[in-house]
Amino acid sequence: MTNLQMDVRGVVKKFGGRAQLYRKLCVAKVELSHRTIDNWIQSGVIPMHRFLQLMALAKDEGFTLNLREHTKNETKKARVTDSTGTEKQA
C-alpha cells in the first residue's frame, strides 16, 4: 500500500523558515497564528486551502510551489498474521 506524506519542513524551508513564512503570510493579509505553522510541521500536513495560499504567495515571491515536489511515497508492507497472532509472509 502506498501512503503519500507531505514534506512540510521542505515547504516551510522554501519560504526561508517558519518565522519568515509567518511574516510573509501576514504581509499578504493571510490570517493565521504562528502556532498554525508549528501545527503543520508537527502533524506533517498543510490543509489544502492553506497550500493554495502558499502557492499564491510563492508566485508573488517569484517561484513555483509544486505539491508533487513536496510529497513522498512511503510503501508499507501488508502485515499478515495467523489466528494465533504470529506474523506470516504476505
Jot down its keywords.
90 residues, alpha+beta, two-stranded antiparallel ribbon, 4 helices, elongated
How are the secondary structure elements laid out?
Blueprint: E1 2-6, H1 8-14, H2 18-27, H3 34-43, H4 48-61, E2 71-75, E3 80-81, E4 87-88
Antiparallel strand pairs: 1-2, 3-4
Can you give me a brief rundown of this structure?
This protein has 90 residues and is of the alpha+beta class.
Overview of the molecule:
- This protein is an alpha+beta fold and 90 residues long.
- The protein has one domain (2-88).
- It is 46% helix and 16% strand.
**Secondary structure tally: strands:** 4
For the largest beta-sheet, the strand count, sense and barrel status come to:
2 strands, antiparallel
Q: How much strand?
A: 15-25%
Q: Can you tell me the number of structural domains?
A: 1
- Total of DSSP H or I helical runs spanning 4+ residues: 4
* Spans of at least 5 consecutive residues with low confidence: none
Strand order of the largest sheet: 1-2
